[in-house]
Amino acid sequence: MKAAELRDMSDEQLALSLKEACEHLFRLRIQSQTERLDAPSELLRQRRLIARIKTIQRQRELRAAPTELQAEKK
Asked: CB–CB of 43/25 below 8 Å?
């Protein structure tokens, strides 16, 4: 999934995608320990997807922070 597609998602959709990606990464790690993976590159792909989602969530959080500070000052 590309970053542009992730940015189009709502906060709830991003949180759900993050949860699913983390669960999939967990299953891949278990599978890599117990048997051979069909595509070892899938581990890296999932880690990068998680990083992209967390980055977008943090960007949104920082974008919302200045408006919260202005509201507190008033």
From this structure: yes
CA angle 28, 48, 6 (to 5 degrees): 110
Fold designation for 3-73: Helix Hairpins (1.10.287)
Q: Are 46 and 7 in contact (CB under 8 A)?
A: no
Q: How confident is the model at residue 69 (pLDDT cuts 50, 70, 90)?
A: low
Average pLDDT on 19-46 reads 94
- pTM for this one? 0.84
Q: Where are the domains of the chain?
A: 3-73
